[in-house]
Amino acid sequence: MQKKDMLIELGVEEIPAGYILPALEKFRTGLEKELQAANLDFGEIEEFSTPRRFCLRIRDLDAEQQDESIERIGPQVEAAYDGEGKLTKAALGFLRGAGAEESAIYKVATGKGEKIAVRLEKKGKQTVSLLSDMVKNGVTGMSFPKVMKWGATQMQFARPLRWLVCLYGAESINLEINGMKSGRKSYGNRFRQLHNIVEISSPGEYESCLERVEVIAERRQRQQQIISGLKAIAEQERLTVITDERLLETVTDLVEYPTPGIGSFKESYLSLPEKIIISTLSQNQKCFALRREDGNLANRFIYTSNGNPEFEEIIREGNEKVIAARLADAEFYFLEDTAKKLESYVPHLKEVLFQKELGNLLEKTERLERLSDYIVGELGIDGELKENILRCAHLAKADLVTQMLGEKEFTKLQGYIGKKYAEVSGENLEVAQGIYEHYQPRGQEDELPVSSSGIVVALADKLDTVCGIMGVGLVPTGSNDPYALRRAANGIVSILAAKGLELSLEKLIEQSFALLAAKLPEPGNNKGVVKDFFRQRINWLLKQQGIGYDVIESVMHIDHSNIPDLLQRARDVESFRQRDDFVRLVLGFKRVSNIISEVKEFGIVEESLLSEDAEKRLWQELLNLEADLGANLTKREYRIIMEKLVAYSVFIDRFFDDVMVNVEEEQLRKNRYNLLGQIREKFLQIADLALVVVEDKKNK
Questions:
Q1: What is the pLDDT of residues 6-35, one digit of tens each?
Q2: CATH architecture of 570-691
Q3: What's 3-65+126-211's CATH class?
């Protein structure tokens, strides 16, 4: 069958950088599904994008659908013919529905008897005749965070549609979307002229046609050109580009033909905290910051222009002018803010609402101090370190009401601004660092706090947020989590695990709810919901550590409040799962659990009733095991304990081979239940091994 490449390009007004890749992915998957539904075979789907275009190229697309031979099965033969051998109403209805004649009928054997059938030959359609509807459906499936309408149209899109290109091989396909008709005309970079027209001759020449009008349509190629330009300028100036992958991704989607250039700002601005300068360059002006060879920040930056290189001087001056104004504002805020001590901002937190039912940020700060004090007590911290931690809790949110953050210019630097202002105010390093770190981790890839102040206040802050927000009934559902409660709870369990803090999560939740009681409409009403929520987060943590779902259930089934202990037990049980003797242990324990699953109460084991050698040995070895495991449990040497349980499984197997448990004599039967109950109780101190999934190779 003949195959050709297909190209579809949507030309638009400039799309925000963050919208492009998600929308292009939906366009690709939508069109791919359309082609598959039409039974058209195709090769690779290539993606192209710039701020002004979405484009897909489908390689080796069938020129037409395959002819199909379709068998339609009707009613049973007995129901298809009457006593005279004529077709019944059921058979005639079947023929009408199938669009077939009586002469086409034949009989087929089915699992429900012999039935009548017909075979329909469906002629495949030309691909060109199908493309219009498929492309329209693909475009309709694209979505954006915000959409708009334009003119008198009803179409909703991120920005107005300005041109369409649709080609199948060298042929231009007639396509109309929202009144816009397709052709082969695309548009190049505007720095040359407003309507920089180029004709796309064929799908294979798409990139080369656009390069003639200063557009690099292939995103990876465009990004590599940016990287190469950054490196070349930095090396020439003997500087180093500060790595910023997010900025690189953004800039790639802001330009069509990147031309890097270098600019500068007044050296006096280098007296500002480093991240304020970097944020001004990267967030506000999308420029890359630079370091000198001594590691200090340079008063230089690299911008990426989409304009005419002939006007490089004007472009550079424009960037410098904007950055100078931004840095002047930052310098003003910094000098104004630091004229006062950081502590002086704390009372103003009452002017900022945290959440309408939970009160203002000053009230949250007071809860942070009290919850931090509780955590400090649980950890046995006192003296100067305790004072530093509580001081950190008191100052943690103060930077939120400074001009630097209040003017919304540098909101992403909360915590960092607090740290720098604390240093200027004369606070010690422990306090200042804790203010910065108490927001960590901000996401799954972020670092955890290191300082004691950062660790304690981070736990208190995140716990107050989770318990408070969920306490007033705002529980995350699906992907809807406006207060980022999952991220906060993940942060809590990650800190407890990584730092080995044996704090009872259960007690922490109880204490947090106690501090929130005056704010909650029904104090403690959602406490169980919060505990279940944290159980899910702990489950997430164990999965991140490579623990199997069944092992997770086996250890969570017992206790999950002490996270470091839970994690250690899970890792040690997981380390045994590939061993044959562990499989034997699990199967034996499952037999123990199953046989006593309906027993409600257990008593003591009467040694005088142990009559069989196997049950006497099982009991004696259990006593030895119990005496032996005491020290191991205290030291949490779960790997050693697992080895001993594996060794003990031999006696469990021998017991089930030689002893009948469910005997008619009630006293003897109950005594054996009691013996198995004690075995299960001992094993449950480590894990409920009955929940672990293993393969019984012996009985396979």
A1: 999 999 999 999 999 999 999 999 999 999
A2: Orthogonal Bundle (1.10)
A3: alpha beta
